[in-house]
Amino acid sequence: MTATVVTHTPPEGSTVAVSGNGTAVGVVGTWDGRRAKLLRLARRFSTEAFALKLGVGARTVSKWESQPDVVPRIEIQRALDTTLEHATTYEQVRFGLFLAAEGDTSPEAPRTVHPGPSGTTDSLFATATRSTMLDAGRIGSRVGDDVIAYLFEYVHSLSRDYTERPLIEEFADFQLIRDQAVGLLERTRRPSELADLNVVIGESTALMASIGFDLGRWDDAAMLARAATMYAENAGHASLEAWTLGLQGTLAFWAGKPEAALDHIELGLTRAPSGASRFRLRYIAARAHAVAGNPQGAAQMLQAAQRDREDAERSADPLHDGIGGEFAFDDGRAAACATSVWLAVNDGERVERAAEQALRLYARDAPDRSTASPVFGTRIDLAAGRLLMGDLAGAEAHLTPVLSAPPSTRMSLSGRMGTVRRLLARPQWQRNSHAGELSSTVSDWLSAGDAELS
């Protein structure tokens, strides 16, 4: 779904416009205490930091928040305008969602924007474009293609940036989108709009479930994944339904329930269109077979996956090709998944081959993401493979960059690092003092990640 300008309108007096390339612009007609508070929350500022940004005292900000109808003086209005203009795209869009959730009923016209004194062609067209955005926002205040397209664009941009921001922030933004779409469900009876909103809710809930899995909240993630499956089914979105069933399968085998995992995957294969959806499900099934102690079944699934990969080259998938990011399943992810398969059956040599292939593909396709969670996760698996082969020094070499990662990046890697700790506890390492030191370092690393999550 594409548009030159997609506009979402919060209550009158504020407009958030999202252009085709995902750039958000926030405009407020008149600032009051409530809107100032929502801007502070959207930009994640403390009261003191927000006051410093505006050049006022912290008591003044507290007064606005305790008296939401107070209107700051004109110079503070300008400072608030500037603070909103300097916000990031995500902060501006988050501000718009906060405003919409507040249900503002005080009608105000947005402030007029005039060309700069230079009168240049650029400023003239910039003013016209911005005014058009505001007009489109007022027209699009009801449920319609523009509002729904805005929600799609926002959830899709977050999916593509999944590993680039703290997962807790991602989760909060997906929840905002989901709640906004749920509210819109009550305002329409048009089948096409209902179907699109179910997809938005299903996609955002699915990604919330994925974050829950990465953060080790497996029970919560399982509930969210089941809900996402139901929304996908309601919308008739086969690829999304298959994706969420695959996530349910992943959660099941990590919880030690490989039979339940295979049930989810089998159902997913009956729903999945040919191509990338089935390619991903085969790899998840291979991991479930491996966890169940069935290496032959795992190998058969990996072989079948190659046929699905060939189909993927001939047919586009709405999630893998249309959105990408966390919804994508490419060769790098497939190799990383194969790493986990061979790790589950204690085949260190195959772990090493698959992990090195995954790292090569990650370096080729995303060279600027050398510290992203998928790369670090594969390094941890490679270290585990080295331990299976009796190579303590090699394991430590692969763990070194991961062990220096800040605590906020560790939560999604705790399950893999726990495998390393269990391997270091095996009898072969019990009398090795260096292995004991590494095990202590790994335990401290895991504890720091747990503390960050709590």
From TrEMBL:
It comes from the Bacteria. This is Transcriptional regulator with XRE-family HTH domain. InterPro entries: Cro/C1-type_HTH (IPR001387), Lambda_DNA-bd_dom_sf (IPR010982), TPR-like_helical_dom_sf (IPR011990). GO terms for molecular function: DNA binding. CDD domains: HTH_XRE.
